[in-house]
Specification:
Elements lengths: L1 E8 L19 E4 L2 E4 L20 E8 L6 H6 L25 E2 L11 E5 L2 E5 L5 E2 L17 E6 L2 H4 L3 H6 L3 E5 L6 H15 L3 E7 L5 H14 L5 E6 L9 E3 L6
Helix pairs in contact: 4-5
Length: about 260
């Protein structure tokens, strides 16, 4: 045991947004029961990379008697010349955290912007322009206070949907803010609570749920309806079922109990 610096998380301030997780190179932080937790003090290096990623100021550096620092093997292998961040080779000294979790509003261009990716098949040539307006896109990394969420029209898509829709950007994403999630991965209660917070804070115009025509994937739609109901905010919810063959069903309006 030795007195050294480690992070301390104020659970009253923490909302479980998960932005601190990718900023911890040593893997010492996890989301447990909707809150960020320091799961092993031995793996906390006390450098505080995670502090700048927390929008609530819930993380601080303290000194206390803890076991000696033991770095994860992955972290040790990443150090070459100078300290690197948790991904992408960015400088670890940056307080902004990993770019994978930094909230960014993207410029997808106007209707007059014809730039895009040309797709050719036989005698047919199509120019497809990215319609992505926001980053990150995974629910786990979304900050409920990101500016791009204000008055947004959300597209909540199952992770598999873009893989089966060749023209996902044109058929689904245009004009919407994208959030992706898989109903079979992670703590769904955490995701419901996060979506409920997004709804409460951002005057959401509507939510379109694009889910696979699979029994397990309907849980995504149920989770959205539950989040809307628990938020107490009336938000129109639309559902689109997508087959593995790339065919989509009709876009239907569905209602939570509050909106029924």
């Amino acid at each position: 045991m030795a007195k050294r610096k480690v992070v301390h998380i104020d659970e009253e301030k923490c909302v479980g947004c998960g932005l601190c997780i990718p900023s911890c190179e040593e893997g010492a932080l996890q989301i447990i029961d909707g809150k960020a937790k320091l799961v092993d003090e031995r793996h906390c290096d006390g450098l505080g990379n995670c502090i700048g990623s927390c929008p609530r100021g819930a993380i601080a550096i303290i000194e206390k008697e803890v076991e000696d620092f033991v770095g994860m093997e992955e972290g040790a292998e990443k150090r070459e010349g100078e300290e690197k961040g948790p991904c992408c080779g960015h400088d670890q000294k940056s307080s902004s955290g990993c770019p994978s979790s930094r909230s960014i509003t993207l410029d997808s261009g106007g209707d007059s912007d014809a730039s895009g990716v040309s797709v050719e098949s036989g005698d047919v040539s199509i120019s497809v322009k990215s319609q992505l307006k926001n980053w990150p896109i995974q629910m786990f990394l979304i900050n409920p206070e990101a500016s791009y969420l204000k008055n947004a029209d959300l597209l909540l898509a199952a992770d598999c949907v873009p893989a089966v829709l060749p023209l996902f950007h044109l058929e689904m994403l245009k004009g919407k803010i994208l959030i992706m999630n898989c109903p079979k991965q992670g703590d769904q209660t955490f995701y419901i609570n996060k979506l409920m917070e997004i709804i409460k804070k951002n005057s959401i115009k509507g939510i379109t749920v694009a889910y696979m025509d699979l029994a397990c994937c309907t849980a995504l739609l149920r989770a959205v309806l539950k989040a809307v109901e628990q938020s107490g905010v009336e938000v129109p919810v639309y559902a689109v079922k997508v087959g593995m063959d790339g065919k989509t069903g009709h876009k239907n309006m569905v209602y939570s109990k509050k909106g029924a």
